[in-house]
Amino acid sequence: MSFDVDFTLKELKSLRVKQRFSFRDQQYNGKYQIITFEEYILIALYANRVVGIYPEIKNPIFINQHTYSEITSNASLAFISKHVIGIGPSKDSIVPPKDNYLRPPTDLVVRAHALDLEVHPYTFRNENVFLHFDFHQDPYVEYEYWLHEIRVDGLFTDFTGSLHKYQEWTRPYRKEKKAEELLQEKTTLLKDNGY
């Protein structure tokens, strides 16, 4: 198995992106380079609106040396709560499925929230092959379940338009705080924790 750290930046820049799911639009395959984290930051800085970045940090050594139960133990969550504002676990680790039906949820969200950690599970997709039977092939029913019953703080999705529509339909955008104010609050939180 190879990881991105096994390649030079020049080698990575020689690659072109490709849609990994054959049932999705393939017209952009081979047209664009992989971009660096620095390039993502520049896009965010020069956008005509506030663009948040939520880096997905993968350390194969850390992951391979620890089991999932160790990483999500109370002690591990307490340790990381001093350094991060949230966690992004797999949705199936929060509510395990069996035969494509949901089983009772774990207590991971409750334990994370008790430590003031936000929880943003991944990956929400609209295609039927990814929707559990409990949601009757309706991604909006899935969003409702996760946001209002499981009470996660956000979602990672391949279909941001669908999630945005759901948010518009169920809770109109509140203008009490501007995006810049919310970003400043998060920055202050990080600075208070030594960053």
From TrEMBL:
InterPro entries: GP_PDE_dom, PLC-like_Pdiesterase_TIM-brl. The keyword Transmembrane does not apply. It comes from the Eukaryota. Keywords: Glycerol metabolism, Hydrolase, Signal. GO terms for biological process: glycerol metabolic process; lipid metabolic process. It catalyses: a sn-glycero-3-phosphodiester + H2O = an alcohol + sn-glycerol 3-phosphate + H(+). GO terms for molecular function: glycerophosphodiester phosphodiesterase activity. Residues 94-161 form the GP-PDE domain. The keyword Ubl conjugation does not apply. Its EC number is 3.1.4.46. Belongs to the glycerophosphoryl diester phosphodiesterase family. This is glycerophosphodiester phosphodiesterase. It comes from Eleusine coracana subsp. coracana. The gene is gb11814.
